[in-house]
Amino acid sequence: MTSGTSGWITLLAGLGIGSVVAALVSWWSTKAVTISNHRQNWINALRDDLVTYLREIEVVHYRNARLSGARGEPTTEDLQALQEARNAALFVYRRILLRLNMTEPLHVRLGELLKGLLRVQNTTADSQHIDEVIALARQVLKHEWAVTKYGMFTIPVVAFKKMVLGQ
Fold first, then answer.
1. Is this structure's pTM higher than 0.90?
2. 3, 17, 34, 66: least CB-packed within 10 angstroms?
């Protein structure tokens, strides 16, 4: 075997290993982008559901206030409108629960706060309770965005940002 032949063999071996490595890097990169896109869609859907849920809770309180302020017996239409509003709120609430992770403390707490809004005790929604839901939802969404953005490096990056930047 001549030195020229061994050079070709080395070159071909290097290209073979290089192409395998390139294929693996390409596969991993494609997978990361796909997961990131799905997570971003999930975050957007969760945000939309949270806004819809809060709107539906306001509708339930509005319908309840109309019934409370009505003179005489409530009409069948009023009762039906209240039930439809409650059903719409329950539908979105359950969809949110299915989107939340039942093992993450922030997600569990958000689910509990959302459930508390289903209890209609006054003619208006409890604005302090709604503010708590919004604040916690913002924390959950921010964390999920960090996971989408940093992937497997989320914990060290977030810890570093808290330590250095105070975020």
1. no
2. 3
